[in-house]
Every structure is written in structure tokens, then in C-alpha cells.
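Exercise 7. Given the components listed, write out the predicted structure of the assembled complex. Treat all entries as one system.
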Amino acid sequence: MRAPSSRGAALGEVLLAVEDVSLSFGGVRALTGVSFDIRKGEIRAIIGPNGAGKTSMLNVVNGFYQPQSGRITFKGQVRRGMRPYAAAQGGIARTFQNLALFRGMTTLDNILAGRALKMRRGFFWQLLRYGPALQEEVEHRRRVEEIIDFLEIAAIRRIPVGRLPYGLQKRVELGRALAMEPDLLLLDEPMAGMNLEEKEDMSRFIIDVNQQYGTTIALIEHDMGVVMDLSDRVVVLDYGRKIADATPDEVKRDDNVIRAYLGEPHGTST
Amino acid sequence: MPSIDPGLDTLPKLLIHNAAALGARPAMRHKDLGIWQTWTWSQMLEEIRAFSVGLSELGLKRGDKFTIIGNNRPRLYWAMCAGQALGATPVPVYADAVADEMAYVLAHAEVTLAVVQDQEQVDKIIAVSDRLPHLGPVIYDEPRGLKDYDHTRLTALRDVQSIGRKKLASDPECLRQWEAGVAAGKGGDLSVILYTSGTTGRSKGVMLTYENTIISARNANAFDHLDQNEEVIAYLPLAWVGDYIFSYVQAYAAGYCVNCPETPDTVVQDRREIGTTYAFAPPRVYENVLTLTTVRMADASALKRRMFDFFIAFAGRWGEKILDGEKVPLTVRLIYGIGNLLVYGPLMNQFGLSRIRVAYTAGEAIGPEIFRFWRGVGLNLKQLYGQTEASVYISAQPDGEIHPETVGKASPDVEIKISDSGEVLFRSPGVFAGYYKDPEKTAEVLTPDGWVHTGDAGFFDRKTGQLRIIDRAKDVSHLNDGTVFAPKYIENKLKFFPNIREAVAVGAGRDFVCAMINIDLTAVGSWAERNNVVNAPFQELAAHRRGYEMIARHIDETNRSLSEEEVMAGAQIRRFLILHKELDADDGELTRTQKLRRGHIIDRYSPLVEAFYNGSTEAQIATEVTFEDGHKGVISARLAIRDLKPYPARATTMERAA
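Answer.
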């Protein structure tokens, strides 16, 4: 009887591959020739200093931005001109750096909104709330309740999200993304603006999501400490270029990464 | 000694009895995935039996000790009964205990098996497992996060039940053997060991027999006319004797339904959905709810606020009389009825108190205003006094005989006496069987003829005939003239004024009582704003002349109330001052749980104490303080000392409680 000593992540097949992707806005190059892959079942971190292109990368992955060049393969299919809703239907869910919840709606309704893509009955039947539509709603509600239980937010089930503290709103947003039952979950700075306790809670939930639902997770994070504890592999971006791609331990020792984060040491640069 | 039917003298026997007699009635509910799940008595018997047989297959046997750690969840309550059916003794541990504390209790009790709620508790056990040589199987209720753990000693609770169900299905002898095992249990058997968190030293394991708990529970049920129709919500720690008796033994004895909340944070909503009829809460729960109401009312519209204020004031005047069934004018009843429609009813409903028949508060002194408020709006709130060593009940207030300052009359079958030193002693069928593996401590508390020393000082109130608890006996001392001096009692009276945050009463071995007051910055600050007194920093506010006048009025009122109590009349406050800084745990003046460290304070402020007794009207003090960022500094001040005139003692005789 002992706790597992490390996150024994068995790397699966490639779920998503990014090859030589470049993205620019006018003359500004946000991403330059970035390549990496995300494997099934892993927690993949994308880190980098401010303005390194992390969020741009995430937006490319979920179809919000179209890269000028490069190739993205998701579940073995090369993607062309994908839009965000198509990405969502394909099994990619995300949370946002600045929360994007329906503030006037309750926690329950917000998470239920995440099931919208899974609803099969039309608007009319849902309005009637009768027969198959009712059955379907019961089923969706059950899944949502499981998520509420999982994220330990039963106490705020009926509270409008706008009245909740920031840390809890973040958790509701994670709940809504989970409600989509995604194959790939993109988290954009899930711990930004949180205190230590909230960060610890959130880390635990991210690991639990990964273990319990087997969800592949790609997360962007600023906080190096958090990333090192959570992730299986780390991509480091700097000025839109990939400067490292390895395990957390290797990345921590990587000279390029240290330089990117701490700047050039005085007197040694040429 | 009251007798007990040998067919119903253990909890497993009561379970089998209830399953037969009340089969289809609800025994337990748990809100899971947002929906209340119900188990009837016969379903609960099936669940517990399967669990019990499973535990037996895992090796639990008569005489073993096993632990239960977690929140109030049906399966953890079932675990207690499942083990007891085999003749094993549960040793519940506080779910929030740190691993080290837990290790001490589990090692001391020689626990051989653990039933825990979740990963958090499993992790704690793993962390200390090398200190627990006796511990075998660990059973968990919630599998979340435990998938990758080494399962050689770890088993899911549901799997234990399946083991039991398979065994029961495959072996026709098994059911008969299990029932024979239950029948072999006797009322005098050890039913539970509850570790009390001692204020000093290591915690002690209080051993209670089935008879102890079942007779106490029966008496309590009869005292408050509780029957199978009650609904209670289980939300207090499993390891606490109160929960063990309220949510387990009394439920089995009366056949009522115990509801487990969805999570510890949802208790208020869950209580509202269930509509509990019998409730128990420490004073702070009633305080918090009242504060919440007041704060919300402050934001309400002017009309609502006026309506609220009017009816609450009206309830304060008449509510208790109506609750106690006294004669009141018809118009009063009419207005109270309207108030009930507009204010009291909705208020009670908001907090899930609409259907409450009996609500208890215990554990600490409750503020008289808070107590009266709740009774005024129609909540039958009563006080009781109890201890783990008594299987809870020592005294309780009967319906209609409620006084905020007493803890009631001796409970049924309980004898109470006051020792020469003023300590409360009791003797009852609930008296514990001793501290586990600690005959010396047992002998200190339990006399050979069955009396238990409570460690509390108290006396019987002349007016009401009810017991009053004044303080822990060790804190009670005497003034030079022999008057009883109970500092905490006086301080509590002072602290009920919102303007007074802390108070330190001094007087042990002196001629009279003096008090050092800490004002409440929020309350006094808002008073200052409303009364055009400049809102200054703490030190200035504390020294303000009008502030002194206000505090003097509060102390005067306290003195008046002390003068009405024969034992306390001599301990009125003669002199006081207002401290220039807040008492703070960082300076060692309070404990981390915000309790006064009296000895330390008296040392630290010895110049002030001297000034009290040498007649000075001012005193100079310089104290070192630790600021929040850790650096130290010195605050010095000149404090005024005020004199107060004591009231003549109202009581005719000035006897000491004997």
C-alpha cells in the first residue's frame, strides 16, 4: 500500500502534431517554424516568457487563427482551414486566459452549456421538454452533476457565476470544458491570478482530470514551478520560436531556457 | 439503574429490530450527484450485513479495534455498525486530524483495520504506516485518485460489500453465523472508543459500552419526545461523542432518519431541502446565521428593513412568552402571527429551521441576545451540558423552562452534585467505562462509587433550580475575602457586548476584581463615525473619553447582572482600563485558536495590574509588539484607569455554592 511515486505516464500515440507552423500579423511574426506533438494521455505544457507566442500557439491549435504556413495533424487527419466550432466538434475544448463565462447564469447552467454540442434533439423538442428531449436532458444533467462532484463545486451549483470569487470561476470554466468530454483539453493559464492554495487545488484537478478521464491536456502556464510538477513534457517558446522540447527536468537545466527566462548573464554574452 | 431489554441492548440488535419493525421507513439519506438517495431500514440492514460479512472475510473479529476517518457519509456510519456486529470496536478519528495526531490514536488503540473516506485520508495513513504495526487492511469509500495506488492492503468499500454478498449467497450457514454473532453481543460490551482532544497532553480514549450510549439515547429521546418521524442532518465530526449519539445511537433507538449532506459546504442548503426537526449546533453556528441575516438586512430596502426591525423587536418582547405557552393578549398573538407570515417564517425557512421542534446549543456559552433572538422568532432553542465521559447528557433544559444563563436540570437518571471546591460531579448510566489503557487517569476522574469529576465549576441557580457552569474548575480562584472569582465567566459576560472584543479579568488573591478591555475596532469605529467622534487609529480610539464612557456603561451593566447572582455578586468589577493595543496571537497573548493566555497577559502587563491595586488613576505601559511583517517595535502609552461603583448584592444570603 503506497502512493505511486511519480506520474507514470505511458506515452501514447501522437494525438496532435504541429509541423513547421508560422503565423504573422502584418509584419509581426508571432510564430516562426514551430513543430511539436502532443501524445495521447499526456499533460503537455507550453511555456515561455511574456509575448513568446504561447496563446497564439493555442489559438492555432483550436482553429481560431489560420497559420500562413505549416501543417497540423489531429487524430491522424491533416487539418485545413478549421474553424473553432469544428475543432470543438472534433474533440478540442479550451479555457481562456481571461474568463469567458456567462456571468448571469448559474454554475450549473454554465457547465450545462458545455454540453450544447452533445444535444441531439432540436430546439423545438428541447423547448417542449418532453419525451426523448427530457430523457436526453436527464442524461446531460447527470454528466454535469458528475463534473460538479468531481470539481467539488456542489456548494455553488445554484449561484450565478458573476458572484463567485475568481478561483472558483476558473474552476467552473474548467467544468464547462470538461462537459464537452474532449479528447484534447487546452488550458490557457489555468492558474493565472490565483493564490497558492487555489493553485494547488487547480493542479490537483488537472492531474485528476488527466488520470480519471484519460484526457490529454495541453496547458500554457507562466508559473514555472507549477508546470514542472504537472507536466510530462514541456515545449518552450521564445519570440515565437521553439527553443526547447523535453521533460521538465531537462528543460530546467537547459541553457537556452535559462537565458530566455533570466536574460543574458552579465559579462559573458558576446 | 434502568434496565434494558437484552434483545435490544446493542446497536446491531437495534438495527435488526428496526429493519423488522420499521422496514420501509427511511433510515438514512445522502445527497449524491444533486439527488437525495434514500435507504430504508431494511435496505440499510442488507448493506451493513454485506459490509460486515466482508469485513469478517478480511479478518476483522471480536475484540479488534478498527478506525473510521472521514466526513459524515452513510457508508462510514455503516462501517461502525458493521464492525460492531462482529464484536469489534470502532475508534473514529477526526477527519481533519494531522497525520501525527492520527498516528498516536491509531497506535494507542492498536487499530487493526481502517475504513476511510478518500485519498486524503489514505495518504495520511500511508505517511504514518510505519508507526502502525497492528494495522492491516485499509478500506476506502471514494476511489477517486486511488487508481494507481498499490492495492495489496487497500480495498474499495464496495468491493468489501461484494465479498460479503458473495459469501452470503454461496454459504447458507453464513447468515445464521452472522446473526448468532450479533446475538452474542451484550449491553456491557465495549461499543466505541472516542478520543477526546485534551487541552493539555495526549488525548485520552473514552470507552463507552452499549448500555452507556443506548440508555442515554433512550432517555434523551423520551425527554424531547423524539420518535421515528424525526429528521436530522449529520454534519458534526464523526469522532465527536455528540455526533455519535445524535446521528447514530439516538437514531437507532428512536428509528429516525439521518441525512448526510452532499459536502460539508452545503449543509445549510441541504438542511433546507430536508427540513430537519431536531438539531444540534455549537453557539457559533447560531451566531453566524444571525450575523449573516443582519448584514443582508442592512442591504435591504428601507421598507423591508423597517418591517424587519419592528417585528424582531416585537418578537424580542413577546416571542419567548408565546413559545413557552404563557398567556398573552390576543392582539399580541395577532401581531406575532403577522410577523410570522412576513418575517419569522421566511427567516426560519431560509436557514432550514421551519420544521425544527427541538434545537440544542452546547459546548460554550451562548450570548444571551443571540439565544433570545432565536427563541423570539420561534425556534425552540435549548441548552444542554454534556461530556464524552457521560455519553453526552448531564443536564438539559426541559421545554418551557429556558434561561439563557443555565444549562438545565439533571437529565433523566443523572445525579449531579457540587463538590466543596465548587466542581460539578455527576453519576449516571452513561458514565464511561474508563480511559483506554490508562487506569491512572481514570482513577483521577472516576471515583470508586461512580461519580465523575467534570473539571467544570458550577452551581445550582436559586431562582430556577437549574445548573449553571461558570468556568473550568482549575481557572476558578478566590478573592482575599473568599469570594469565588471565575475570570472566564466575567469575561464572557463582557464579550457579549459587540464593542468589547476581548476582556481580561484579574483578581485572584486580590481584594477586588479589575478588568482590562480590548475594544472591537469595527464596532467602536462604526460607533465613532455615527456619533461624530473622530475615527482615529486604534490607540487613539481606545483612549477616547467618550469611548471610555461607553465601555463604563457596559461594565456597569455587567456589574448589575453580577449583583443579581449570589455567587458572583462579590466579584463585580471595581476598576477598569482600555488597552492601547489589540491582544494578538503573534505577541503570545492569545493562542492560535484565539483563547486568552491569561497568565502571560498578567505578566506582560504587570505595571497595569499593579496600578489597579495601588490606587493610581493612570498607568504607563511599554510593550514590545511584533508587526505583521515580523519586525518588532515598542508601543508605549499612558492609560487612564476608571473606578466603578459596585451594586449591592441582591441575593439575601451570600453563600458559596456547596
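Discussion: Chain B touches chain A at residues 32-35, 123, 126, 129, 138, 144-145, 147-154, 262-263, 265-266, 269 (CB under 8 Å). The two ends of chain B are 26 Å apart (CA to CA).
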